[in-house]
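Summary for the lay section of the report: proteins are chains of building blocks that fold into shapes. Here we show the chain for Thiamine thiazole synthase and then a coded description of the shape we predicted for it.
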Amino acid sequence: MLKDVEITRAIVESYMKELLDSLTLDVAIVGAGPSGMVAGYYLAKGGAKVAIFEKKLSIGGGIWGGGMGFNKIVVQEEAREILDELGINYKPFREGLYVADAVEVATTLASRTVKAGVKIFNMVEVEDLVVKEGWVCGVVINWTPVKMTSLHVDPLTIEAKYVIDSTGHGAQVTQHLLKRGLIEKIPGEGAMWAEMGEKLTVENTREIYPGLYVTGMAANAVSGAPRMGPIFGGMFLSGRKAAREILKKLKE
Ligand code: 48F
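The coded shape description reads as follows.
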């Protein structure tokens, strides 16, 4: 016999177990877009305890729509090995430039990330950072519907050795440091220039404040570097770079 309340118990018990297990993390990633998920994948593969908090119901960020809703994304040679590592198919467009199906990229990347051991909490918005003595050491979370309806409901807290701002164009998480005067400015992304934007998104992937890394478009937004449109190699390389740097520090 299938009891209705049994379904509820199965969901509540298993969710709460995972939430309790994620209260203390090696790395809390904010945003399940391409750079955040790739970072999560490599961190988990490297043995780190990592969770991603995504405010939307769906994961994938800007992957799904490709360019203007034409659901294809472009990836350059430098990032091809990441597609291979993840088992994502692609077709050469010309030498050194490849096209992948946006739906396959979003679903396969999400699947590989979760199977690597990353817990993704969707519908959870990071509304602030925990900062103590000049070090970012956690995130402040709330349900997205609470934020959307502006209900007066206090949030909860997750402790993490490192936080990654993978929130894309707005650098939502780093904004909290700016508003408190802990960093000087966030210039915002520059005008479209794919080649430069792709190069700089990887260069700008860094620890912007003790304990806080930026990846992907957030890395360019905090550095005033160009946007690049639907080419994604830089996003993947940025996520991998942040993961590698954090793994090194976690082992120190
Ligand atoms: O924007 P997004 O895809 O970030 P990305 O990894 O990739 C950018 C590309 O998609 C594309 C591009 C070039 O290739 O320019 O735009 O830099 O994903 C960011 C994710 O963060 C979530 C948001 O819903 C999206 O899924 N997000 C944003 N703010 C918050 C958040 C927040 N405060 N809490 C939780 N999730």
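Put simply, here is one thing we learned. The chain has a mean pLDDT of 98.
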